[in-house]
């Protein structure tokens, strides 16, 4: 159906993933206690981080390690984690959900959301430019990034603070350019193309909760979440990036324009009432489910904040004078026993060379866009009981069934060369955390 190149719909920057949020520690043999180290390669957004933390016991120590393909994506992840960690007394759950979803999936945002973005960017600039051995907030740990990468983050955050209208890019034109390039000669009948992708692809793949009205609006304008009556006319600068052209970098919107940001939080729910249908129609939309899922995640994380151990509280009390001097991230929630550390962009191939990471990670996650980086060296950083989770191409809509199957075969071959074999005892319930849903492939180390 596509007149454009296969890759164009998915884009060149992973602003969101092509799979729903999952607790990565539920894949494969279930792990219930001890300290867990989870490595995420190219996840694109913090959905798996939030879900894994929220669904894990408070007493479990979780260390999430993140490698991304660009600093633009790292900056977005830091921003979304920042919003997540804002305490309820500063921002209520409903408002937090609205702000998160607007920044996450809308090319244009309300003025109130822009104000929150600017404040967050100002705070994040301080956090990445302060030279400290320990992070001010362990969930926003950038201390292991290279200095040039932290400088790049500061540059990106400063761009977000610029007054509205100062960007040379008009988002509506940047979005329309991508749609025209992707559809080619079919552009004049674009609504029919949008409807085809929704009903014959997403709905056929089990995403019936994505409504036609919302999907067509997102495909046409880039507005996935209109949370309330408001004026959406301010460019969301977090979705702008520079793509390398033949000679110069071209700034614009270079993310997904086909699969949608609904996949991350909006197509699955533990609350079966949200998945009810009447006369074959879903009563709740992907936006409703995204909102409900995020509110539940935010509440779970707030509970983890309140359940600090005595030793943890004592440690925070001792550090209070130091934190009061560094005012960048003081007011955010500190989650008990949780750290999220961002590693340098080129670190994946270097981890096996460092003694610290020898047989270190209990769970390793690769996105579909980064699976080519899965090589035999991964066996050296995987713990003896490690589980490898790889995102498949089910929701990359420009691929046909043969290409999708070929991708899964490539994944299996790469995993085998890295010393992993398919885990065959997974749950068959694709809506929970099973491995037989066509969304992820799960492997364990060869015996």
TrEMBL record:
A Gene Ontology cellular-component term: dynein axonemal particle
Coiled coil: none
Record-annotated Dynein assembly factor 3 C-terminal domain positions: 140-423
InterPro entries in the cross-refs: DNAAF3, DNAAF3_C, DUF4470
Residues of the DUF4470 domain: 15-109
Gene Ontology BP, a term: axonemal dynein complex assembly
Protein keywords: Cilium biogenesis/degradation, Cytoplasm
Pfam families on file: DUF4470, DUF4471
Location in the cell: Dynein axonemal particle
Job description of the protein: Required for the assembly of axonemal inner and outer dynein arms. Involved in preassembly of dyneins into complexes before their transport into cilia.
Family: Belongs to the DNAAF3 family.
Name of the protein described by the UniProt record: Dynein axonemal assembly factor 3
Species of origin: Gambusia affinis (Western mosquitofish)
Organism lineage string: Eukaryota, Metazoa, Chordata, Craniata, Vertebrata
């Amino acid at each position: 159906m596509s007149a454009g190149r296969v890759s164009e719909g998915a884009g060149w920057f992973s602003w969101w993933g092509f799979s729903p949020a999952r607790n990565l520690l539920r894949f494969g043999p279930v792990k219930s206690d001890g300290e867990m180290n989870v490595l995420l390669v190219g996840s694109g957004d913090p959905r798996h981080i939030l879900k894994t933390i929220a669904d894990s016991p408070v007493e479990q120590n979780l260390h999430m390690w993140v490698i991304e393909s660009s600093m633009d994506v790292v900056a977005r992840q830091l921003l979304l984690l920042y919003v997540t960690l804002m305490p309820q007394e500063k921002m209520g759950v409903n408002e937090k959900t609205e702000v998160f979803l607007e920044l996450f999936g809308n090319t244009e945002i309300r003025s109130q959301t822009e104000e929150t973005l600017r404040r967050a960017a100002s705070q994040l600039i301080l956090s990445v430019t302060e030279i400290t051995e320990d992070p001010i907030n362990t969930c926003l740990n950038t201390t292991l990034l290279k200095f040039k990468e932290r400088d790049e983050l500061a540059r990106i955050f400063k761009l977000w603070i610029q007054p509205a209208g100062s960007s040379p890019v008009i988002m509506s034109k940047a979005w329309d350019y991508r749609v025209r390039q992707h559809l080619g000669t079919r552009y004049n009948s674009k609504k029919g193309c949008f409807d085809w992708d929704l009903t014959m692809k997403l709905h056929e793949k089990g995403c019936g909760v994505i409504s036609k009205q919302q999907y067509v609006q997102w495909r046409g304008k880039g507005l996935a979440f209109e949370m309330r009556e408001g004026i959406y006319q301010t460019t969301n600068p977090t979705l702008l990036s520079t793509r390398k052209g033949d000679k110069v970098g071209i700034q614009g919107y270079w993310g997904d324009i086909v699969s949608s940001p609904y996949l991350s939080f909006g197509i699955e729910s533990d609350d079966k009432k949200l998945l009810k249908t009447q006369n074959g129609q879903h009563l709740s939309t992907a936006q409703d489910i995204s909102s409900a899922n995020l509110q539940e995640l935010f509440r779970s994380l707030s509970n983890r904040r309140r359940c600090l151990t005595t030793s943890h509280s004592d440690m925070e009390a001792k550090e209070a004078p130091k934190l009061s001097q560094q005012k960048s991230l003081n007011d955010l929630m500190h989650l008990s026993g949780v750290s999220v550390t961002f590693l340098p962009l080129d670190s994946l191939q270097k981890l096996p060379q460092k003694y610290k990471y020898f047989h270190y990670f209990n769970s390793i996650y690769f996105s579909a866009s980064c699976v080519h980086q899965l090589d035999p060296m991964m066996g050296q950083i995987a713990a003896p009981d490690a589980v490898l989770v790889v995102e498949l191409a089910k929701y990359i809509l420009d691929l046909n069934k043969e290409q999708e199957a070929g991708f899964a075969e490539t994944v299996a071959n790469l995993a085998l060369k890295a010393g992993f074999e398919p885990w065959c005892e997974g749950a068959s319930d694709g809506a929970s955390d099973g491995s037989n849903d066509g969304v992820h492939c799960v492997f364990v180390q060869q015996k």
